[in-house]
Amino acid sequence: MTTTVLAAPGWAAAFSHPFFQHALLAGTAIAAAAGLTGYFLVLRAQVFTGDALSHVAFTGALAALALGYDMRLGLFAATVVVALLLGTLGSRGRVDDVAIGNVFSWILGLGVFFLTLYTTSRSAGNGGAGVNVLFGSIFGLSGAQAVTAALVAAGICAAVLAIARPLLFASVDEAVAAARGVPVRLLGFAFLAVVGACAAEATQAVGSLLILGLLAAPAGAAQRLTDRPYHALALSAALAVAEMWTGLGLSYAVPSMPPSFGILAAATAVYAATFATGFRRRSTVPAV
Amino acid sequence: MLLADAYPAWSWNPVTDLQQMWAFPFMVNAFRAGTVVAVAAAVIGWFMVLRRQSFAGHTLAAVGFPGAAGATLIGVSATYGYFAFCLTAALVIAAIPRAGRDAGGGESALTGTIQAFLLACGFLFSALYKGLLGGVTSLLFGSFLGITTTQVWVLLAVAAAVLAVLAAIGRPLLFASVDPDVAAGRGVPVRLLSTVFLILLGAAAAEASQITGTLLVFALLVMPAATAQTLTARPALSLALSVLIALAVTWLGLITAYYSPYPIGFYVTTFAFAAYVLARLGRLAASRRPRLVSSRVPAGGPA
Hints:
The complex is a heterodimer.
Chain A: H1 11-16, H2 18-43, H3 47-67, H4 71-89, H5 97-121, H6 129-135, H7 143-172, H8 174-179, H9 184-206, H10 211-225, H11 229-253, H12 259-276
Chain B: H1 14-22, H2 25-51, H3 54-62, H4 64-74, H5 78-95, H6 105-129, H7 133-141, H8 149-178, H9 180-185, H10 190-212, H11 217-231, H12 235-258, H13 264-288
Helix pairs in contact in B: 2-8, 2-10, 2-11, 2-12, 3-5, 3-6, 3-10, 3-11, 4-5, 4-6, 5-10, 8-10, 10-11, 11-12, 11-13, 12-13
């Protein structure tokens, strides 16, 4: 549903289009949420979990569409439930890679089933639904959808910031944190639920296959740029938002470029730049 | 999906069913290709699970999509695209320094970024190509229709090469996978082995992509191996078991997909996951039984 954009001269024109305003509103909030969540995901070496949840989002969305519900309902229900389920598979709310791999491969297979069900049982106009869920359609958001997405993303940001301090402690040194009475296990689950919600949220912007870039790239770049946790957290969110704007602008200027690609290209370029400029290699906290 | 108007009926007589199915050259080719891919993916996947490189494996599998989409865009065979992208991505991931057995956050962030960026490239290529949207779906989720005899030979040649190299480095690789520090201390070239293994993984992923689609390759890589390693701790036995499970789920998947309107990826993943769940439950039941299994050593950690 990517709207074909006429390359209008001047940037003032861009902001006069409702679809661009909606994309900007939702995109900014989603990018901030992804940047904050992604920082902890990278710090806790749980990027693969984020990867798995992004694939679960695909199945959730397609299942809801095939059964005739609002896509967002399926997205959030599937990702949060599977996130908590994954938490029970590992110790202390951390998940074993092989178990994740097995679960999400099957869920993805289930997604294919729902995709077939949806495209064959409903009218023929649905052929692009799968592609939209996989790769996003941020320029297709309506005003109400954009406002809802922005509010939910703001809620995710608030949740991450609320648990940031104990979560940071628990992520950096789990054993000491547990000894000091931090509810490590509970925090692990809460964090997984937030990651699930964030994956569901970001699916609407960049699509379920590309969420991983929005979660991992700004956070990875921020971790290379600074050692201080709170600076890195803020930097990760700021980078994500800046990359989102760049991507939206790029895709507006070059109409044949899908917005998801623009966003991912900006994110990857920033991350690559942190390597190219030769910032000192900082050993990240190992997963224990 | 192309068969939607005329589904063959299931007759409950396996001999006539097989005869009827194999009367179609495309089904014979699908079975040949499926067999080759299942064996290669199961063996490589067994080492991948042992080495805990699921994320790298998933990334290598996913990058086949931009490869195939890019090849379609410039008008060459998708097979070249799969191999070019998967092997290049394997080299890039091998270049990322690995701190220890657990890939640290920074490294997995890099792997994840590579994966997402390449998938976005694939989306760009298919948007530029402006082809049928159905093409994207079949690249991602696979199709067993229309595999040519030439393709089967290419798959067989690559699989034979991969398995030959793996046989040559099998012993040191097993050593390096189980205990990298001791292996390095004994003079095993751990780093080199790791690079070679990633290249083999890339080749196997490129192969399997052509049958199961790039998103579901991972199912063939991880599930049979994880099931086998849950069931037994002996390397040779679990390797053989992994191959058997992969073959069984692929053949069952092909047969059920032939008789029903849903895609093969769904069936292969469902059968493989069912096997995994059964294995986990069986193991759980066995460990609940007192004293009988106390001597058993878990295979490759908490599989």
